[in-house]
Amino acid sequence: MSPTAIDIMLFSHFSLIIRRLRKKRRSAAAQLKISTNINYAARIPPFNNLPHLFSCILLYAMDPQPPQCGFEGNPDLYGLGIRIGVYFQWASALIIWRWYPEGRNELGGAYLVFLFALLIAMVVITARREPIHSAEILLLIYIIFGGVFTVMMIGLRKSHLQKAKKIKTSWPQTMALFFILAAASIYCTWFWLSGIHHHDFLDTNCGTYGFLFTKVSLKNKHVTRFFAALSMYLAILYTLGSVYAVGALAAFLMKAPWLIRIIQESKRLSRARDAKSPERSPLLRSWRIAELATGIIAPATNIVSFFYSIIGLEMTLHWNHVTGVYTINSVGQLIPFVIGLVGFIKVIYEPIKEKYKLGKRQTDGIEGDSRGDVEHDHESEKNAISGLKELNQSRDVEFEAASANRRLGYLDLIKPVERVTVGEWRKDGFKS
Fold first, then answer.
1. Which positions, given as ranges, span the membrane (predicted)?
2. Are strands 209-211 and 215-217 parallel, antiparallel or unpaired?
3. Contact status, residue 241 vs residue 178, Cβ threshold 8 Å
4. Is residue 154 part of a domain?
5. Which of 34, 72, 145, 307 is deepest in the core (most CB within 10 A)?
6. Strand 322-323 vs strand 71-72: parallel, antiparallel, or unpaired?
7. Is a pLDDT exceeding 50 seen at residue 431?
């Protein structure tokens, strides 16, 4: 057999081997963790009888190339549609706190249900030991607490104080918020202290990274300790809030006297029109500086949390090379996206509608000035007549008081009666 025929047979044989190896490599590339520094030539026996070209082809076929960084994400938890829907809700919250505070309970209740579902999903995945990456847990934490400090935090703003009568706080919603945040904070404390190190959470091939105002490694002990300390602080805070909420509910159901006094005092203070009202205590008037400071801190916290959470989510996805979460191709993503979009449009529509109604009322008032002038004249006449009647009545009362003084003086009582004012006679209920 000629050398050319041998070369052709060898080339055909190795081509078949190459195709089979490449097919196997594609199916198992995700599970392979092969270092890029391995010397493949040391593991391959020398082929002195093969042309150099065939040796190079065989080495290329056996080398599956460095493993791809990243992993296939879960679009049902943090896909593009879900993320955009969440971002719309956060933006709606910023608009509501500034221009439409009456709608905060509706938005807060809807987001509370979403937080509860997200927390349940995170706990169930962890309990079942389903394969999930540490970066994915960090993404869910961003969504939970980013929404809390953007949607649920309001502060003592002047606009809220002026519209306090229109805003009704829901006690069940407040209690549910404390319980959910306490549970989420406890879970995060466990995750950063123990779970990320000893649980079956997967690592990204090229390193697991997160966002803490910069790119940080989740394997860095200083980073995990910081997150653990922050989670522990929030766990203590929200647990105490939950205990206080339960105690207040129990006292309310038992009709505790101290709680009734607090409610009565709150109602009395709510009737005060401004901080200078005498119905407000000096302590509340001294809180005006704190209210102004909180009125600045609360909006700043909302805005910082809004941008920080969005940047944290997107950069964590990018740094960990998460794929499959940048398209809206499932119903599980489409529903949250539509809900968030419709809610955002509604929030924008409400202030515009209120402004339109106000402008229309002002226009109708200008057009009705001519008719109002006549009615105003009749009203002025009625007020003038009523004032004259009251003046005559006051003069009659004063005359009766003076006459009574004279009659009592004529009787030479033991203690002479001095001249009294009309107001004092009215207070004593003198008649005749």
1. 80-100, 107-125, 137-156, 176-193, 226-253, 289-311, 331-349
2. antiparallel
3. yes
4. yes
5. 145
6. parallel
7. no
